[in-house]
Fold each of these.
Amino acid sequence: MSGVPEWVHLPDLASRGVGGSVVWANDESFAERENLISRAEPVHRAGTFGHKGQVYDGWETRRRREPGDDAAVVRLGLPGVVRGVVVDTAFFTGNYPPFATVEATSAVGHPSPEELAGWEVVVPRSPLRGDRKHHFDVAVRRRFTHVRLIIHPDGGVARLRVHGEPVPDPGLLLPGAVDLAALENGAAVVGCSDMFYSSPNNLIAPGQAAVMGEGWETARRRDDGHDWVEVRLAGAGVVRLAELDTSHFKGNAPGWAAVRGHDARVAPDRWFDLLPRTRLQPDTRHRFRLDAAPEATHARLEVFPDGGMARLRLFGSLTDDGMSDLVRQYQVLTATSSS
């Protein structure tokens, strides 16, 4: 691999495979922005035409007839220190941008693209050529959450790779915590308002959703209500971190969500807030630290007013009673009868 920098062996922090998302682009007239972060290498089939023209496995904007540049913003699936960027113009020959700039910023929480600020240049305006990978070293050593690819003035880019080292937020790390809502840990869906497009069991399935159909999605509501899913937790426990993942849901993500809990051992009809009603972003893994949550045996995800969710994770610790119940159930179900 002569001439290829060592940092290409570091994780791609922007890849869809680790939860990255192209959250905004000013134009995608010829080819969709989401292609930029596909984990697969770009491919091309000559003579394949759709309603936008030749089908390209990349992001392509219209031909500009006025001054300006085109841009796309990527939320990193793994925030971290960026060591290098690859701008790949594979199969773009007469329609690649002659120059590109890459900027980056660090944001707290889950801002909308319009709320992002503090951009700094990590790859200065640099020349590009068609149908090749361009490797750019990044010297800035700080944690970033978003990058912005600016192409001058227009054209097509097949892939954007952002290689670096993930840097987690310590406030979202819980030593010894387990996912109390995980199917594999014994949780179960026990109620649901609507499952028109897909099963709510997908919400608590192992792994990340690879496509929209691997999540839970409701029909469009035409009333004043909202949709919900109720989960019996793996055992009685205290939830300390909630993850609400809208990955792949873009025009059909809920606008807001809340998580409520109750303790069926004490007051099964008394629900309390674990996560109050909170704004959500499309195609985003949201993580919320929960403080001073009461013990719960059940949780209910409420989405406002409707839409789709890829995964629900509720990380926390089992109580002594919760662990004892799990151990007792395990022993009963694995005991062998004596002859």
Amino acid sequence: MEGILPIWKPKGMTSHDCVYKVRKRLGIKKVGHTGTLDPDVTGVLPICLGRATKIAEYITNAGKEYEGEVTLGTSTTTEDSSGDIVEKRLVQEIFPLERIEEVLQSFKGELKQIPPMYSAVKVKGKRLYEYARAGITVERPERTVYIYHIQLLENAVELQDGLLSFRFSVQCSKGTYIRTLAVMIGEKLGYPAHMSDLVRTASASFREDDCVTFEELEKLVQAGKAAEAIFPLEKGISHLPHLAISDKLAIKVRNGAVLPEPEHWPGDETVLAHKSKAIAIYKNHPEKPGQIKPVKVLETNEIR
């Protein structure tokens, strides 16, 4: 059994918890997730099985989509609702929708972020959350991310007990912290803020409609139909350029051969496919102009 199993991650589980549960339920050792989701976050979590673990990084590095909720009036240690309140300033006004939309649009494009202390980013060999739990604040490396699309989701803004909340959708690059984005939105509106809810609605080419819950997976396993929930690894790299190759060339590709650059070569990492099946990912050779070399060989002659 191999391919990609898109799980709809429930609240309260880490991404590693999901991997462990899939590994145990399907009886597969080679299992890997494609990008960490915080325990409080629900949504799309593609899990790679068997040979598909070779392409996990391509799903991880692809764009993500989220629906989130910003709450103005309080900021927290974790930048989401699970943390302790560090600042509180009650909101006395309902902002016009145009003002909120204007602020959201100001984040479109390239964006500099500093990862939150409660995150898995490593500094000097330790995760930031390890420092945070010990009460230590360290200097964090700034990162550049990209916001492709962002918009207000609802035509209503809720103000209750001095806290103002609104929902938004965002399409963004790998490495974007939506928690931090929520805080930045609050800063532009002049209030402390945190992310009060978050759902990942898409990861690479996988969307909510592709996913199964653990309850649904359990029923499929009991019926002997678990394979129905698994997509071929090709779907995980469908966002990359593809090039169809001949039978003769496919033999060389499966052996990991360095090849002359084909005509109409895209110039980026490209999937070489034989009879619609991805067998390798190639890129320009860094030391041999006019030639290409394998980045990942997905199918060798031995396993055909």
Amino acid sequence: MFSFPLAVQIRQYVRFKNRSQELISSGRRDLIDDNGFKNALYMIDIGQNDLLQALYNSNLTYTTVVEKIPPMLLEIKKAIQTVYLYGGRKFWVHNTGPLGCAPKELAINPHNESDLDPIGCFRVHNNVVKTFNKGLFSLVSEMRAQLKDATLVYVDIYSIKYKLSADSKRYGFVDPLMACCGFGGRPNNYDRKATCGQPGSTICRNLTKAVVWDGVHYTEAANRFVVDAILSNRYTYPKILLNRFW
């Protein structure tokens, strides 16, 4: 699996829009027109892979990673500006969740108790994420002031997911720091030699009570919790309901 840099994705978007307009002008009627691009909701959820790679490259050193955050935020700013230039006016921006609570990270990175927060998540991972999210919040606020005719909503995914990990039993979940599908059992049920789907891996008995599916990605039940929290409007800034864009 390969991930595409944000700049590449934006170039693909520009190409897609320009080509759509060319085909419409030549008679096609089954493509998105200029008004469609303007009324579309542009959802941005990015940063997790960049922060993890920076953490790996720095041997989990907070200061080194934080120095790399401003260029990451600049790329997001350029992306929003480009989409705006090409007509986009509605932006829904997710911050990054608590990477330090991922079973994979806890399993592959040696640590002791002092490296963990009160609920057992990596401090350095989550501190890096919180610094990134603080910068992202400022960026979205800055651009909201600059792009007067655009709507930019910041969504606090971090708080939603951390709340789920911290109070999992309250919401009907168990073992939030364990992968449901994996190998090795407690504490994290994650092994690079037998990841989910590979020989030796197993699946937990009650998937509806698991938070993390494969050590990284959330289960359907956990994602439902996240979506319900987003739709509650308690974690959006400003307080704009998602269905306002429909």
Amino acid sequence: MIFSNILIEWYLQNKRSLPWRNTKNPYPIWLSEIILQQTRVAQGLPYFEAFTTEFKTVFDLANASEEQVLKLWQGLGYYSRARNLHAAAKYIVNDLNGVFPSSYKELLHLKGVGEYTAAAIASFAYDEPVAVVDGNVFRVLSRVFGIETDISSSKAKKEFQELAQELLPIEDPAIFNQAIMEFGATQCVPQRPDCSVCVFNTKCVALQQKKVESLPVKLKKTKVKNRYFNYLIIKDRNGDFVVEKREEKGIWFNLYQFNLLENSKSDTIENIVKHIKKEYNPLVLIVKNEEEVVHKLSHQHLHIRFFELQFNEVLKEAVSLDEMMKLPFPIVIHNFIESNYL
């Protein structure tokens, strides 16, 4: 258990002060874990504070509308996390009488909670001896122990899980799990870690074999799809806006947007303007951005242009700017509205 002892000693001297580390209450621990999936602590912390202020208990979260939850989540991305969070809160309140699941196996029944998240909540809230394995853990273990198994392969999860479980001190699983995640997040970072100050630098196989930058091994590359979005900002005579809810499954499900004209490939502004004029015949058409805004998601790059279309009639479906700003939008659209209309 030399590894565990060194790691925990490092953690006790170097850990960041974070609000979810000062409680055994499963509700804020669960909130923090969902928010921090695919999100850095610096970005996630304000959202955690906003959620725990707005929804002090799981009952408050369950009783909120989906739009309230999505609006508070706006800008964090991966919005299915917010919808799953809301669904899980309703399940806890309606099916479990508000009593939070108290074991790893029971936690897996919550929507949006996988093996890693269940292990984190079970160990932090209930001291259940289940090791966490996430990207940080893959990186730390692969480097320190020199494991060259491709982490995108099916056998990697079992191999790393067994090693992490073997290293886990049964008497204090929470502190070990916190420690290895913190070590991966702040010391054994993906790019150019400072190995000169690492507590494992005399034992780390990757450092001895000059493989720090090549571990962990991940052979499967994410294929990125390019999409071309042209948003039509339809304004009526009163200066009100037409917006719509995205109801097709995929990115930004149930968030709001302007009318969307999606092209299968890149096109010139001249061609797009010509098409819009022919289809919509606006009184005034303004190109809001000559250069595409490129919004990068994990599997997609969105090439976005905005066009303002002004009409001389009152549109019954149009909403005021104040009403519009209460709705949840993808952050790229929200930022556009803020910089152009507020």
